[in-house]
UniProtKB/TrEMBL annotation:
The keyword Transmembrane applies. Keywords: Membrane, Transmembrane, Transmembrane helix. It comes from Polarella glacialis (Dinoflagellate). This is Uncharacterized protein. It comes from the Eukaryota. The chain crosses the membrane at residues 104-126, 138-158, 174-193. The keyword Transmembrane helix applies.
Amino acid sequence: MAEMLFHGNLMTGASGSVLLPGTAYLLNFSQDLWLSQFQIQAPTGGKLAFFTEHLPKEFENKLHYLMAADGHDVEPMEEESSMDCADIVDAGIEHVKEKKWAEVIGASFLTIIPSIFGIAVLAASFSKKLSSWGKQALQFAKSGACGVVFAAAIFLLMPESIELVKAGKESESLAAGVWGAAVIGGWFLGVLIDHSCSSSHGCGLRNQLRMWSQKSTADVRPGILKSQRTAAPKIPR
């Protein structure tokens, strides 16, 4: 029934309106007030199920999202997102959620590799025989640590701070992956272009810039020397 109502005609519910059970509403929040209130006509002694596009906690600020007429908070008996729900054929079958232990342990191990590598390099630096190896390996440890911070910023912080990143995507994790891959891909593209231009003889933009900078330096130097010569006072003998 809920799916049929979602695909049907939605009624518009403005702030302060009364919502009736068994009806699908498109809620319009108040643009002038910081709080939008909707009254729900609930049956006495009955139970209600709400099917929404967002979890109600997303709109919680200073007040609870569901309150009784006397002002007390009303807590739901069960609250679950459709992203975590599974298709259950029989209502009596309990669905066991799959626990991806291998992915979690593998990701944790990859995250702490730079820290472990740094400790190994620090221990090797105390030995004279391994000091040269430690200095060379420290460069890779710094690169790995930089990669972890870079990935955390791109795949976690930036997608969470920008609202429309997941627009048109099936899930939030997919949107974060596409966002991070696009940013890193653009960075690698710039690196490849830089290396290809520096290694190939056909790219003359960098050479032209260097010639222009050298010419500008050569044009400035005589003027500086000339001004220094004319400004020097003559000392009588």
